[in-house]
Give the backbone structure.
Amino acid sequence: MNDTVLEQHSFGAEVGRLLDLVVHSLYTEREIFLRELVANAADAVDRRRFESLTDPTLAPPTDAKIRVVPDKDGSNAAATA
């Protein structure tokens, strides 16, 4: 049985607008933005593994992975770690 608990966080309107500006001004290609997003998620997982060396309660699940899931209309994607 899968005991994974998913948490969903939504951004405030201001943060959403800021992310939109970042995507469209710094990353002219969506693929580059997505690659950076996944790389940042991987860095966060690695940091958590490193921190768990001194605090075992921070250890990620053994099956931790990064998932990128596009929505049905294809205009958005969700990245989860």
Remarks:
- The first strand starts at residue 67 and ends at 70.
- The chain has one domain: 13-80.
- Residues 32 and 49 are 26 Å apart (CA to CA).
